[in-house]
Amino acid sequence: MTAQYDSLWQYILKELNKSYDETTYQELFEPITSVHKVKNGLLFMIVPSLHIKNRINRLYLNKINNLAENMAEEKVRFKFVTKEELENEEKENERLIQNVYRAGNLTSVYTFENLVIGKSNNFAFRMAMKVADQPGIVANPFYIFGDVGLGKTHLMQAIGNYILDNNVSHKVLYTKADGFIEDFITLLRKSQMDDFNNKYRDIDVLLVDDIQILSSAEGTQREFFKLFDYLYMNNKQIVITSDKPASELKNFMPRLTSRFEAGLIVDIQVPDLEHRINILERKLMAYDDKITLPEEVFEFIASAFVTNIREMEGALIRLISYAKIYDITNITVDIAKDILEPLIKTRTRSDVLNENNYDKIQSVVADFYNITLEDLIGKKRHSKYTLPRHLAMYIIKQKFDLPYKTIGSLFGDRDHSTILSAVDKMDTEIKTNREVKLAYETIVKKINFVKLRW
Ligand code: ADP
Ligand code: MG
After folding, report:
1. SS3 of 102, please?
2. How far is CA 437 from each of CA 73, 118, 126, 168, rounded to the nearest angstrom?
3. Please, what's the b/e burial string for 237-269 (b: 16 or more CB within 10 A of its CB; e: otherwise)?
4. 194-221 per-position pLDDT tens digit
5. What's the pTM value of the predicted model, to 2 decimals?
6. Angle at CA 225, nearest 5°, toward 224 and 226?
7. Which of 169, 191, 247, 297 is deepest in the core (most CB within 10 A)?
8. Using one digit for the tens of pLDDT, what is the confidence trace for 28-64?
9. Ligand 1 pocket, 116 CB below 6 A?
């Protein structure tokens, strides 16, 4: 795998030999004969001592990387390390891998201690602690909802980890709802329902992540209902996460959602700026406790990444990794801006859309009429679809006053005149047709309500 890079290195050696005097060449470069390994675009080269590594990094690394850039098709960079450093790094990696998973599919870093608490998750956290202290007794099921990347999975697994830490004999099982569907379908097909029951019934705590995925999966829902009742009757703790409150789950069996509603429902909101900065500080410490960042850099990242902690964390890691690779010791806001720019650009684009939430308007309308989003946007001409479609166009026009062409692009690239006539038509309909007027008013109310949680 390293062969192609070996020849790149040979080429670079030749160039270095031309550029520098014989003693330097022989001392620094000649002993390095091959690429040790390649990882994420970094070519690891082993050097005999820290002293040589530092000299190369200080004086020659730029030149070498420039040569590589001119020569190699893909972007690669050289990293010079001593054998010792490499071994330490590998050991550390192994330790991390070994520690990541524990019984029941849990990730060991998702603990209560690692969760930074603020206003947005305080209640959910306190209740989660209670549930973990007395599984099956305090709140069953315990239902956590909130938007993507706000720490639902983390909180849920923290409950599991805590229970395991307190009592190793407890059986905790974490599963994503799609994993549950998969298990159900495969084992059903192989007529191995016994295995299914063994896996899911012989436990003390069941953690089901992203339950909304079960929407419309009727067979699986039925099976989940049976399992739920079995565990519930036996006082086994059930924890569920979702992107919406139980009452808003669509295409779910009512007996299932009413079971969810009978438990304790908590939500996690977007953390405020101070809270986000605290999270960043903690993540940095966990990632590398030797690195420090100036306050304004934390503030910059926390202000640029607002709605998703996972993205914010990703930004921090990217910044730190770049700084390490390029040996930047003083990370300023300007450097952070440069390094994070690609992330901020794509995110802003998706945020603008989020702010305006055209897609959410489309889903509210589709939900109201009980049709799929695909049909709402699609080409079917039955009035069952065209009325909701036109109404959605009308509401988007009214709320955001986008150009007709732009609205057209939100509906499978329809042209300007199609949208124009749909909007006109709806204007008249709402004035003249009571039923449409009522639908319109209900949907707008619903949109305004949902918006509080967007
Ligand atoms: P969700 O399941 O809601 O999409 P996750 O639980 O996967 O979100 O969280 C995304 C990332 O953000 C994880 O790495 C998690 O550790 C981190 N995270 C979220 N909220 C917090 C918090 N309050 N404190 C520390 N880390 C958090
Ligand atoms: Mg999750």
Report:
1. strand
2. 61, 43, 45, 60
3. bbbbbbbbbbeebeebeeebbebbeebbbbbbb
4. 888 888 999 999 999 999 999 888 999 9
5. 0.61
6. 90
7. 297
8. 999 998 999 887 678 899 999 999 999 999 999 999 9
9. yes
